[in-house]
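Inputs:
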Amino acid sequence: MSKNLRINNKQFVDETRKLSFVFNGKKLYGYKGDTLASALLSNDIHLVGRSFKYHRPRGIMTSGSEEPNAILQIGNDDALTEPNVRATEIELYDGLICNSQNCWPSVKFDIGGINNFLSPLLPAGFYYKTFMWPASFWGKYEYFIRKSAGLGKSPSKQDPDMYDHRYMHCDILIVGGGVSGLIAAKIASDDNKKVLLLEDKELLGGSLIYDDNDISKIDNQKSSEWLKKLIDNIQNDKNIIVKTRTSLAAYHNYNFLLARQNLTDHLSVNDRNNKIRQRLYKIRAKKVIISTGAIERPQVFHNNDRPGIMLASAVKKYIDYYGVRCGLENVIFTNNDSAYETALSLHKSGTKLNAIIDIRDNSSSEIVNKVKSLGIQIYWNHSVVDTKGYKRINKVTIMKLNDKGNDVIGKKIELNCDCLSVSGGWTPMVHLFTQSGGKLKFDNKDNIFVPDKTNLNQLSIGSAKGDFELDDVLKNSIKDTKKFLNIENSNFDKIDVKCSKEKDKKNIWLLPSDKPLSKTKPFLDYQNDSTAKDIKLALREGFKSIEHVKRYTTTGMGTDQGKLANMHALGIVADTTNTNMGDLGTTTFRPPYTPLTFGTIVGRNVGQFFDIFRKTPMHDWHVDNNAKFENVGQWKRAWYYPKDGETMYDAVQRESKAARESSGILDASTLGKIDIQGTDANEFLNRVYTNAWSKLQIGKCRYGLMLNEDGMVYDDGVTTKLGENHYLMTTTTGGAANVMSKLEDYLQTEWPELDVFLTSVTDHYATASVCGPNAKKIINKIFKNLDLSDESFPHMSFKEVKLGNISCRIMRISFTGELSYEINVEASYGKYIWEKCIEAGKEFNITPYGTETMHLLRAEKGFIIVGQDTDGTMTPVDLQMDWIISKKKYDFIGKRSLYRSDTIREDRKQLVGLLTDDPNEILEEGAQLIKDENKNPVDMLGHVTSSYFSPTLKKSIALAILKEGKKLKGQKLLVPMIDKTIKVTVSDTIFLDKENERING
Amino acid sequence: MFLINCPYCGERDQSEFVSGGEAHIARPKQPTELNDDQWAEYLFMRKNIKGIQFERWNHVHGCRKWFNVARDTSNDKIEKIYKMGEQPPKL
């Protein structure tokens, strides 16, 4: 620490606790209470980064979230490193390691700095204009552009930190713990409201807490002393919950807000063990008070971006709060009174102030008079026209302004300085107000946008609303809060406030220079290196909307989202186009207000908690038997059961063969199951399925196809008639929830007259499906007294039997074409019945098979899978399933759509079978079908939807959807692949057992 | 994130609900009597207005009941909530 930069007096920095940190490899020291920025400044380090485009040296400019330059890479651990951290916000901790970004090999010598000298060749839109041609070269350009762009590096390993989410509810949410927010909190609490107060810094009090001048008085006390008492009061108030280090990220409709609390980022790495790093609050507030304050604007002049050029308010905060001088040769450049507070702070701390340059003709306020009385040189009606010093400012050049303020006159004066404090007025932080849908209005007096209309139960107070002077801030905050909360009297009603009042105002968005604009670099957006020139270029090139100008010039698009740049960009556009700023409007403020980590956004929903998954009652058995799983919706389904190092292909071939030749068993528990009861249940089925249900007898099962109202296939499954008014519907695994919702929708809204009750029972039952020529023998071993003859228990029928105390519903239905029985039991007996089947089937080599084999077996039979062979554009006619459309029924969901002009077209894509000319060639699912390889562009006729090698048929089979497919049976087509073209022949969709003889074993 | 006052359960967070599009589009009683244009009108045509729009909402993670909402699309303010089968309010 450079001795003469630290001032020993500070209540906010604990000089007994010295902390070490490493910046760009160099070990440095600061104190507990410092931010990284104040610690760097106390070590006389301003230069911390290079700008994005021209790689110009940049220094710390602010003391808050608006910082455009001092964004650093924190940490050197692959998992914990974090880019783009604002040095002005992160609290110093022992062992902090940080590095500059966007420079190579170092921040002091950066090769990219050459861009600064090429800058005439790099105007706004440079990349858009230059790399457009030839289009095929983009891949090559992109490599180099990506390499040179980007800020910081992402962690390359999984984030080991823990993050949390929490809901909060309150009567009054107050965002911002400055003086106006604190007063509002106290008024609300005194009225017995539950208050939640958020403050993004570690301490309450805003800028008033370190205010050290003698002019501002509240109730005849120094304003900071008065405020400290109020804070003590609030911290002991049971109605007020205070969350510090908590910044509001987003303000959504209906007073729903997101805030992020930093819990461990200020602790040394060793003290963070197993603690939650950040917490995201999801807040519902009955009323919201926004007291987010204002941020200072810089001024726009030639070379206004050198390290050592800072906001005047930041220079003041570093002295008065952190006890750090930002320079030993100070100059202030301002257009308003607030910078004179910085002058007083510099003077009081014994720091040399060479001069104040003020673009106004004069000012006669109390605070300016006080500065005048101290004998400090003030250059009225002057402007800075240039600065010198590559890595740190060392001189400013000033000139007199002409009467109109649009040119400079007279001779140049050079002043020495190593720190230039700049103030261009204040901008209310209206981000949250506009995020919530509020509309702004322009205030010509202070050149600011202030909150106007809102639909929500909210209030903006303090400088966030455009009040900048202490008496206005306090008195209006009290008055407005009372009105907002319908309170007649408060303890603040007799408050007495004294402060300096600004009388003279002047604002020039782009200050004149002695050089032509084209020879200057007046920066607006420091992070994106956009200058006033770029804005003017965009306007010349025809961009008029401020949103377009923003995107073309990238002004306001960095990690700081143009918190400093936006007002000047708007001002220059308005001046150049002769528009009123109020008519121009602003760019859209979008959440988050400051960047959020991904960790905060996802909270605990990572790894195994990322998504819900559902397991069947037999899941553990599948795991024990080496099953591989696939995700079907939220379900984990057994996919295949590899034995002794089998590949998936080998396992599926073995499983399929076993099911066809002897027996196989499938866990079908995931199929959606809906219990349907009521006197109109049968009529209901008639309306939701395409086929007829009236004649279905008790104990019988029927396959049904469900359409959308547009005629496209939606779902399918077997429904069993359990009793006169009682059915059990099954749906596809993935479609279960949607089918349930759709059926409920029709019942509640279109057919409320039907007496039907629906209950989802998917999780209530487990299903073991035993199939194959030996299935009957296996079932017979388990259910010895059950008559399994085809006469008593035919295909598509159902029996209810007991196994001991267990009720079993056995359906004789088949998705494989084999004789098969589906045994449904209460879920808790699922594993038991499964193991029973395995045991009984041992002598028949019963083989557990997964979804992949199920898909193969059904494809051999030409059975569709909704969602695999259909995609929401297939009618039953397209699927060659005309047989399932009832001709007799007057109506069902989707019926009318089946003869719309589009659905009756004969050249629609239709489901067909494909056989490869080489029987060993297996097509890829998704592969395209074409006819004429030489046509350019080639006609895309369809694509493969299902494809397998059939071990039973000993050849490759596939299903596909194909334009006019029905007419093309027997025709040759081509399947072009990346390395070859495969010849195929269009076939029937049923490949195996066309006569359906296997169904009876 | 809206707060929606379910007519059966009371005020709940929007995450418990799904929107079902425009309300008061009754399914024709005799679809087969309609020509293609009339059927297309029912099937595809939906309003997307700036201002008060009548919508169907379902309390899917709650009572699973459908109901109607009159919402101002310009500011998402819910003007009125009423049950299925009730006539839209005059707003």
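Chain B has one domain: 3-83. Flag for discussion at group meeting.
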